[in-house]
Structure formats: structure tokens, C-alpha cells
Design brief:
Length: 449
């Protein structure tokens, strides 16, 4: 039987989609407000829920990594976003990547057909009355930004983010590129690799540094999120910076030469059909014509057709450590919870995870259960603890990583062994937490309902 009180979720991205589903599956009536298609954003191109506007990758699956551990935790908690990602996965080596169209369509269909979810296609120009979860994301509309600013203060933070271009697979020169994953991981040949020799690499970097950008001086003054640096900014930081970053050639051998290239640009499939490829690590702020010219210097892409050029867009997030409690509720307005990138957490599954926790804590409020706060030894628990700790200063967007968890006692020597120990401890602690909390059992996040 549905609970008497309904909840409004604002924003139909990953966090909002996850939150709405988790609430409804636990008997809570949900109004999910999504402004598209009536009002769109600079980065979105469809009206689908959970549209991926940047990469189609949900990162690595190594069980000893923080990202692999996050996936295991979300599986334990019954994440519908992770379940949909697994169903619509495309080959990506040791990473989980999805067919973005199928992924969005899957979740859109599930939520629109759920009997306890009403999807309202309209912009929320003010904060909803009653209990709500704000998951409006990094591209929060000006009206909601103003309403949120009135509530939390005008000194909210903002940064700039960038998306990589996508090329038509049929226009890639297959006589130049070669299929392989680093060290043969995953499927062994899930990426296309564009090899550059030293002369080609240095010529490319020189053009990249001097290419015309869309947002010149304003962009240079902005505080850039380090994990999503535009490729031209990486190039400007040093001749070999890109070669030790996105263009690193390690673990790859060019079958045409039998040797490791000087640098490599990797292309990752964007869909299950393999008709489109993403330039890995090539988030950019270059003008479209410059992208065509400069990226056309990459071996194998001289005649490539761009299905989407890289774009630059403004991201908005709140100063979570000073505003949110450990349940993601605003300290000064506890009936409002914030989820997703609006909290300053970065990453697709991190967004879904915060949406899931915001929903569980809302349910806990409604039924009188204890707060849902994961152990700080878990990947998701450590991230939320960092984002909501008043002692966190100089707050900037953060992904899950093992640097956020408490140290091991006694210490474990060797990075691989240490990471495995972190992962093992996280698995034990989330299982123990789940067995002792009335909302810890999770739900089946099936996409075959």
C-alpha cells in the first residue's frame, strides 16, 4: 500500500531517476519533474530520462578498485541505474560502458510505466512544497538556480566541464588504427587505437595548443575540475603531459610496426552496434571548425565524420560540506535533500548512488527508521562522508577513490594488496550494515519488470 505522503523529485538525470525508482518501489508516490523537452540545456539532445551527456563509460570493473567496489555496493543496494547499465553494456575492455540510447530508453520506459511515478514534463521554477529531492544536476536551470541560491546563499560554487567528440565508425581509416585493449584486458580488442610517432605527436600538440577556443579568457580564469580537463589545457601544461595521460601508449603494440607507439589516441564504442566511437579523454573547448582541423591530424581520423563535436558547459554545485547533513538533507531545510552532481560529487554511478541514498533517507524519515548512513570504509559511504563533513575545506568535485577511506590497521604494503584489502573491508562492512538496518536489504533493480 502506498504511503500517504508523496515526494517530489526534481531532475530526470541519473540521480533523479534512481531516487524516483527507489522511492516508488518502497511504496512512496513520486512526482518526477523533468524540464525537457519544453526547456532544454546546452548539453542535452533528447528528452529521455537518464540521458548521458558526456562519456558513455561507467568506468572500471576491477573488484579491487574503488569504482569496482562502488558497483558492488550499488548492486547490493539494488540500484536500477546499474542494472540498466549492465543490460545495455557495450564492449569496453575492463570498463562498463553502455549504448547510451538504449540505456536512456530502458530507464525512461520503466519510470513512465511505474504506477507510483508521475513524470511531469515541466520546469520547476521554484522549490517544491513538502518533501523533495533536488537532482537538477550540473546544468541546473536559471530559475531553479535562483531559488536554490535564495535558500542556501549566493556563494554557491561552479566549475566548467567538457565533453569529448564522437566520430562515425564507418569513416575511420581501419588501415591505420588497430583494435586492442591495454594489456589485452577485458575482451582484448574493445578499443580502436590511433598510433602516433614522435613527429606526429609533437606536431599535433603544437596545433592543439594554438587552436582557437570557444571560451578563451573566461575559461582560462575558471577553476577547472582536474579529472575532466580539456585536452588542449592538458597540452598547454607540457609537451609530454598528454602522452602520460589520455594518449599514453602503455600496454599497446601496433601490429603494423610490432612496436609500442610514441602516443596513442583511443576510441571507445558509443553503442552496441559499434557505429560510433568516442575520443577517450578528449573533452574539449575548441571551436567546432578547429576540432575538425586539429583532430583530423590524428592518424586514422583524417577523413572521419564527427557525429558530435566536443562541447563546454557550465556546471553548478553547492558547497555540500557546509550545507548538507550525512543524510544529504539541507541542515537548514531538512525536508529538502540534494542528490547527484549538484552535491559536488562527480561520476555517473556516484550520482546514482547519492540519489539512492537520498531516497532511502527520505523513506527512513517517512517510516521512522534510523538514518541511512553507510560505513565510511565503503566506497560510497566514504564519498558521502567527505562531501558532508563540515571539516572538509576548499571543497571541489570528487569521484570515489581509496584516498577517502580510513587507513588500514595494521598498514598493508603494496598498492595492489592495499586496494584489495580496502575492497575486502568495504564488502564486509556494507554486508554487516545491511544486515542490521531495516532498509539495508536493497531491492531488485531488475530492468525486466
Amino acid at each position: 500500500m502506498p504511503l500517504s505522503e508523496s515526494v517530489t523529485v526534481v531532475g530526470g538525470g541519473l540521480a533523479g531517476t534512481e531516487a524516483a525508482w527507489q522511492l516508488a518501489q518502497r511504496g512512496v508516490r513520486v512526482q518526477l519533474m523533468e524540464m525537457r523537452p519544453a526547456t532544454t540545456s546546452p548539453a542535452h539532445s533528447t528528452d529521455g530520462l537518464a540521458e548521458l551527456v558526456c562519456s558513455n563509460s561507467f568506468k572500471g570493473t576491477d573488484p579491487s578498485s574503488a569504482t569496482g567496489t562502488l558497483k558492488r555496493e550499488l548492486e547490493h543496494l539494488g540500484s536500477v541505474v546499474l542494472a540498466a547499465a549492465r543490460r545495455t553494456a557495450v564492449p569496453a575492455g575492463a570498463a562498463l560502458a553502455v549504448d547510451r540510447t538504449a540505456f536512456s530508453a530502458t530507464l525512461t520506459g520503466m519510470l513512465e510505466s511505474h504506477p507510483l511515478i508521475e513524470v511531469l514534463r515541466e520546469e520547476a521554477a521554484h522549490l517544491p512544497e513538502g518533501r523533495s529531492i533536488l537532482a537538477t544536476g550540473p546544468l541546473t536551470s536559471p530559475a531553479m538556480e535562483a531559488a536554490l541560491s535564495d535558500l542556501v546563499g549566493s556563494d554557491r560554487l561552479a566549475f566548467y566541464d567538457a565533453a569529448a567528440p564522437i566520430v562515425d565508425a564507418a569513416t575511420i581509416d581501419r588501415s591505420v588504427v588497430f583494435a586492442a585493449s591495454r594489456y589485452g584486458k577485458g575482451g582484448g580488442a574493445d578499443y580502436l587505437n590511433c598510433p602516433l610517432d614522435r613527429e606526429q605527436y609533437e606536431a599535433f600538440i603544437a596545433e592543439l595548443r594554438g587552436a582557437r577556443r570557444v571560451q578563451g579568457h573566461e575559461f582560462e580564469r575558471a577553476d577547472l575540475f582536474q579529472a575532466c580537463q580539456p585536452i588542449e589545457e592538458v597540452a598547454r601544461s607540457g609537451l609530454d603531459a598528454a602522452r602520460f595521460g589520455a594518449l599514453k601508449p602503455v600496454g599497446l603494440t601496433d601490429p603494423n610496426t610490432g612496436e609500442r607507439p610514441w602516443a596513442v589516441v583511443q576510441l571507445r564504442p558509443e553503442n552496441a552496434a559499434g557505429t560510433a566511437y568516442n575520443l577517450v579523454g578528449f573533452q574539449t573547448n575548441l571551436a567546432f571548425g578547429e576540432q575538425r582541423r586539429v583532430f583530423g591530424m590524428i592518424p586514422g581520423l583524417a577523413t572521419a565524420e564527427f557525429l558530435r563535436y566536443g562541447v563546454m558547459h557550465r556546471n553548478t554545485f553547492i558547497d555540500a560540506p557546509s550545507l548538507l547533513d550525512s543524510t544529504l538533507a539541507l541542515r537548514d531545510a531538512p525536508h529538502v535533500r540534494i542528490a547527484g552532481q549538484l552535491t559536488g560529487t562527480e561520476g555517473y554511478l556516484e550520482a546514482a548512488g547519492s540519489g539512492l541514498l537520498a531516497a532511502l533517507n527520505t523513506v527512513a524519515d517517512l517510516v521512522g527508521a534510523p538514518p541511512v548512513v553507510l560505513p565510511p570504509t565503503t566506497a560510497l559511504g566514504a564519498l558521502i562522508a567527505y562531501a558532508t563533513d563540515p571539516e572538509t575545506t576548499g571543497y571541489q568535485p570528487m569521484h570515489v577513490n581509496w584516498g577517502l577511506v580510513p587507513p588500514l590497521y595494521p598498514p598493508v604494503r603494496g598498492k595492489r594488496n592495499r586496494y584489495s584489502a580496502y575492497a575486502g573491508r568495504a564488502a564486509e562492512d556494507i554486508s554487516a550494515w545491511a544486515s542490521g538496518h531495516p532498509l539495508g536489504g536493497g531491492l531488485e533493480g531488475s530492468v525486466d519488470r
